[in-house]
Write a structure and sequence with these properties.
globular, four-stranded mixed beta sheet, alpha/beta, Immunoglobulin-like
Length: 190
């Protein structure tokens, strides 16, 4: 009977109180990892835009997520590919627990590439699950494995096109010199 009462008490105490999650980090440029400023950050909770702000010149951002929601955090900047990640914060917390868990997440953006369909990046680049009860944030490795082949393929194409853009527009075509063989005599035929 004591065990049953313990579990009833435990179950009721889990339903109130919340552990909030604070995501902080910086937005950087792909390849150089330089801080990228003036990035628009939009936060959607359960499909509804809840926050919108622009990072400063240092590209730093902070987003507070409450328990009980499914969030999409989207990063965009003119001339760059928009990227996002998702965090699920649904779950019970200990009664009266007012802890805040802080996690750092870096977002890397790269410039648009003309002629290349990059709509794949409309999908979240990561799915995280936050457990308010334990304060633990975990990333969905299975999801990452499923998107990895297409992500690798697209990023290889982005790198290739970036390299091609660095080559000067007019490339001089080098042709091999015509080789002549000396047969040991000089002059014309008689």
């Amino acid at each position: 009977m004591r065990i049953l009462l313990f579990f009833v008490f435990l179950g009721t105490s889990l339903l109130s109180g919340a552990v909030d999650l604070r995501l902080r980090g910086e937005v950087t440029t792909y390849g150089t990892h330089e801080q990228l400023g003036d990035v628009l950050v939009r936060v959607y909770r359960n499909g509804v835009k809840e926050q919108m702000f622009t990072t400063g010149q240092g590209g730093k951002y902070t987003v507070d997520l409450e328990r009980g929601g499914y969030y999409i955090i989207r990063f965009s900047r003119p001339g760059h590919i928009t990227k996002c990640f998702a965090v699920d914060t649904k779950g019970d917390a200990w009664k009266g627990d007012t802890r805040e868990v802080s996690v750092s997440v870096e977002m890397t953006l790269f410039t648009n590439v003309s002629g290349l369909d990059l709509s794949f990046f409309d999908l979240p680049m990561g799915l995280a699950r936050f457990e308010p009860l334990t304060g633990f944030l975990s990333w969905d490795k299975g999801y990452e494995e499923r998107i990895r082949p297409e992500l690798d393929r697209l990023m290889a194409e982005v790198r290739l096109r970036a390299e091609l853009e660095r080559v000067p527009e007019t490339v001089m075509e080098v042709q091999p010199k015509a080789r002549t063989r000396s047969l040991g005599h000089h002059g014309g035929h008689r």
